[in-house]
# Entry
Amino acid sequence: MTKTTGMEFKARRLNQISKMICGDSNDNQISYFIYRSSFYLTEFFGDAETEFAHDGSTRPKWVAETLREILKEPCTNHDMPSDTFCRVIETLMDQSNAFNEDKNRSKALEELNNALSRTTLLIDLIIFKNTFARLLKLIKI
# Structure
């Protein structure tokens, strides 16, 4: 299978997603994402099968830069971001990471979709055989 070069996201979108990964709330709103310190950011990216380790710098800035690097990686489908980026989103939306909401993550999903609304991607959750299976469903808009 041929791999193509990844896609780019605007800085604002990367910053929004990086805040979700860090667990930082937006404008004093309730966060639906677990707060991650330096150690847990490294663990998060390890769970997404990457080698990235937080270097102690400002968390959201480091995550945004890390996402920018990940998006440069090759992808197996030209309509999708890099395979690594897809794993990062799957890790972010994992049912076990539910925070301030129930396990279906509907509020976190809404926040993520808002961040991605001006890109060519939307993420969706799919129920499969009465269990939540996280699948990335990438929809062209």
About this structure: The beta strands are 126-128, 131-133.
